[in-house]
Amino acid sequence: MPPDFDAAFRDRLADLFAWRRDVRRFRGDPVDETVLSTCLALASLAPSVGNSQPWRFVRVADRSRRAAVVESFARCNIAACASYADERRDLYASLKLEGLREAPVHLAVFCDEATETGYGLGRETMPEMLRYSAVTAVHTFWLAARAHGLGVGWVSILEPEEVTRLVDVPAAWRLVAYLCVGHPVEEHRDPELVRHGWQGPSPISARLTER
């Protein structure tokens, strides 16, 4: 018999979705290894095209590699800041956009585009579904981490090729996400970019269009 997902559970699930936030401010205390393993195991329950399960999580623990990732962010961040003008550039420069130095856990998430699992089912016409499948694993991990009291920050202001080289993974792996994981310094329900004035609040909408 399937479990009974009653109204109380659905309310709690809605809370989990609402409190899943991109975290940039982490405490320095370590993450419990059992909790981290549990969250990674739950991530493996994510849907994937043809049951290919193409996600590959790589824990980046080496200090020199982590320092090089920070340097990559710094280069990209300078370039991104320069792409704005006047007040918007100043506001961008004031934002904290990563927790790379503080987060106790770094996870580089790749899509294995050469995987034979699933025998290519569902990918012939939309090969990008492999990467989309890896993204579902990232989101599943994120929700699991939040449910265990951890914060996750997704850092995209990086050089994908450089990070791939630094981590030294197979050539067929493509970087999908670089995650900072740890205990958050503070908890907020609203997005940080809204809270710090980068953009206004967006209405909750499924953005459903009929044709």
TrEMBL record:
<dbReference type="InterPro" id="IPR050627">
    <property type="entry name" value="Nitroreductase/BluB"/>
</dbReference>
<dbReference type="InterPro" id="IPR000415">
    <property type="entry name" value="Nitroreductase-like"/>
</dbReference>
<dbReference type="InterPro" id="IPR029479">
    <property type="entry name" value="Nitroreductase"/>
</dbReference>
<dbReference type="Pfam" id="PF00881">
    <property type="entry name" value="Nitroreductase"/>
</dbReference>
<protein>
    <submittedName>
        <fullName>5,6-dimethylbenzimidazole synthase</fullName>
    </submittedName>
</protein>
<feature type="domain" description="Nitroreductase">
    <location>
        <begin position="18"/>
        <end position="183"/>
    </location>
</feature>
<dbReference type="InterPro" id="IPR012825">
    <property type="entry name" value="BluB"/>
</dbReference>
